[in-house]
């Protein structure tokens, strides 16, 4: 409802209230008048003992007159009249006194009471009249009572009382009360409108303040601090007064939430905020930069070592253990420092440089702190760009699988293909798997990417001849996700691909983290009929231990041993031992990374089973696989024809 409408409603209520009060006052006045008139009628009857005689024409005596005159004057009695039974006026007082009464010679009937007297009625009424010919309206209470003698009505007594003062008093009180109520009713919406406006403004200020502060720590949000920094640059000469921005990030908060619950994580963040507040102690401004990261702004940092010392104290404090509900938990803190002038003269520039400094520090692994370094920032910028490219490619399914042929090293026949994931970005160009796979693991997208690669490899391979296999590399993170087995089953079922034609490859590093968890899942895959290959054999620390703990299907010799054939005489002996070890365990041995015919010949002589490398074939697009398969089939057919011809000639 609008303010004008509310005022109108209050005015209507006030008018209605005034009408009700006027009616109530009128009723009260009439009741009081009846009581007074009846009382005075009874008084006169009691003091005028000769009323029956007066109705017959007798005069009023001096004694009753002396009794009545003072009471008439003090009791507001205007006049009284005496009538006989037929309604003839026998006695009438003057106004306010009994003197000069009209005697018994009056013979006319009073027209005003003729009807009432004829019917024999009695009672009290309130009327408006003019007294003494005055223009002022007076209020009169009249009481008509019968006069009886020996039980017989012989006449009537009419008493008129002046009620003007009482009526004026009641009217004045009514007007004052009505005015007060009207003022209250009119003031109520005005006060309500003011109060609502004030409350709304206070609520808006509260909402604005809450929107600018982090609910968990109570610190200002990043946007508020950045605005303050820009204000500092606008009002201060940046070249004369240096400032510093420190970005502190907690690593491991998400892991605490997964292990101990979100409540514990929040307590850890609050404890970290309290520690920062104690360390800063008014020397700088603190804000939140995210869920588990903080900004510390020094508006005066003429000495860079001051900022470095503060970053060191914060990093050490936030990396220390925290006792939360009886449990000791800890996070790693990485802090990056950006200085005005050298690193920028706007809030966004300082923020960007502080983020890059944190990335550089984080790459070192351990808790640490450091200044922004442009050279390190280049690498950090590329990592950021790769993160973006990986996230977009995962969401939009823009990865691609190329397939490198794997051949039988003795016959040259095609054994299958290894699926190799590729990422092409418009900004970065072709990104190596060695770059984007670790980043995908870091940002938690490797499971989605791995599931897609399994499904895509099976979708493509199902179109090949039935004897060809496809190999897919698995990341250690996929084993830790708990969904690897279901992802494999889904890929096989969705594409109706037989499990015996699928091979998964793992590195020795996968087994080093939690070998029992990994081996348990690998056994499930082997029971499904899937082949398991140990990739990059020879580069780990416990290869032999893993080989006897789990019966792999295949052993893939790392390319570093293949390349060593051209440089080291002992490389051949090492390869011979690996091949014999693999065969001794009943494994197929594959050599990858073959780049020249000498390497191929040596590996064939050593008894290696399968081979792949640029010498044999480069990874090919899906559209080119049919040509490779047909070419290999044709070469195999020609070879078999030549072998048959040779046998016939020999015979």
- List the quaternary state of the chains: single chain
Shape: elongated
Q: What is the CA–CA distance across the termini?
A: 113 Å
In CATH, what is the class of the largest domain? Alpha Beta
Low-confidence stretches: 98-107, 115-126, 128-137
CATH superfamily of the largest domain: EAL domain
Integer average pLDDT: 79
The helix-and-strand class reads: alpha/beta
CATH topology of the largest domain: TIM Barrel
Strand content: 15-25%
Tally of strands:
22
Radius of gyration: 56 Å
SS field, number of helical segments: 22
Brief synopsis:
The chain has 651 residues and is α/β, with parallel strands linked by helices.
Could you please describe the fold and organization of this structure?
This protein is of the alpha/beta class and 651 residues long. It has 22 helices and 22 strands. The strands form four sheets. An eight-stranded mixed beta barrel has the order 14-15-17-18-19-20-21-22, surrounded by five helices. A hairpin with a 3-residue loop joins β15 and β16. The chain is elongated. The termini are far apart.
What labels describe this entry?
single chain, 651 residues, alpha/beta, Beta-Lactamase, TIM Barrel, eight-stranded mixed barrel, 22 strands, 53% helix, elongated
